[in-house]
Design goal:
mainly alpha; Alpha-Beta Plaits; 2 domains; three-stranded mixed sheet; 8 helices; binds zinc ion
């Protein structure tokens, strides 16, 4: 399968997942507010954040699959910044809501809502199974990370359902409050992971993958002696910089042909590579290199 087809399919999967969880989340949010259940509302906010993440990664993969030679890849850093800002907004509203409406003496969440929470857990688990299958098929890291996430989210929904049962049968409203804090804690944790990732993407942090680096060196070696290879993050994507020492006798025409070929090869090494930059320096004759510089 072509890398662009893999990316396109993965983006489609993420859109389907984002839409399914958004539809469920909106229904849950409405019911949570109508029945003034902080627990159900919290579960909905968590789901809302997750569907936003699925949409944003889906758009990123979609653009990567459509990219042409002139695609402004710098825009991927903007994608990271937008992710960070939108999630921060939801988190702020959520924190405000918790701080102003948490109570230990209110009414428990209606018992029938355990069914709603359980349905949410089942939906998440089904999506997890589906994503796991897609990950094996497409081998895209972005889908695997999401599958682990879905597993934890399912566990959270089951915990919430258990808390509603406890608060109804044993008048333990504290169980619901505890579950709300567990959800809040997990949303905070998800946020820090996402913020870290977004910050790496915005700053263009180095991406460490020795096996990939070796393959890039191998491809660049077609031109001459690779002096430096760097893989940097650009949003959720990767940009490759390479410095190659080429023979001073090589013609510009030949250099151009080899460079175009190397860029093509390197672009195919990883589906998330969106830009390859190869720079040259003339290679010095071996016998002119002072030996001591090796030990410096
Ligand atoms: Zn989640």
């Amino acid at each position: 399968m072509k890398p662009s087809t893999r990316l396109w399919l993965a983006s489609l999967y993420l859109f389907v997942i984002g839409t399914a969880s958004l539809a469920y989340t909106i229904a849950e949010l409405l019911l949570g507010v109508i029945h003034s259940s902080l627990l159900v509302t919290s579960d909905a906010i968590h789901g809302f954040m997750d569907s936003a993440i699925a949409y944003i990664s889906g758009f990123g993969l979609y653009y990567a699959s459509q990219r042409g030679k002139t695609f402004p890849w710098e825009i991927y850093r903007l994608e990271s910044l937008l992710t960070l800002l939108s999630i921060l907004t939801v988190l702020t509203l959520y924190t405000y809501m918790l701080a102003t409406s948490i109570r230990l003496n209110g009414e428990p969440t209606p018992l029938w809502m355990t069914l709603l929470l359980l349905a949410g857990g089942v939906l998440t688990y089904v999506m997890y199974l589906w994503e796991r299958r897609n990950y094996h098929k497409l081998k895209l890291e972005i889908l695997r990370a999401d599958a682990l996430h879905a597993k934890i989210d399912t566990a959270l929904s089951l915990t919430s359902a258990a808390a509603v049962v406890l608060s109804n049968y044993f008048h333990l409203l504290i169980a619901e409050v505890a579950a709300v804090f567990v959800i809040y804690g997990y949303v905070l944790y998800e946020f820090t992971l996402l913020a870290k990732d977004a910050a790496y993407g915005i700053l263009g942090a180095l991406y460490k993958d020795p096996a990939l680096e070796d393959k890039i060196r191998e491809a660049a070696a077609e031109l001459g002696k690779p002096l430096d290879v760097k893989i940097r993050r650009a949003g959720s994507f990767l940009v490759v910089y390479s410095l190659v020492a080429v023979s001073p006798d090589m013609t510009v025409g030949r250099l151009h042909v080899l460079r175009t070929k190397a860029i093509k090869t390197i672009s195919k090494l990883h589906p998330l590579i969106v830009h390859v930059d190869i720079k040259f320096v003339p290679r010095r004759k071996e016998y002119k290199r002072p030996l001591k510089s090796r030990h410096a």
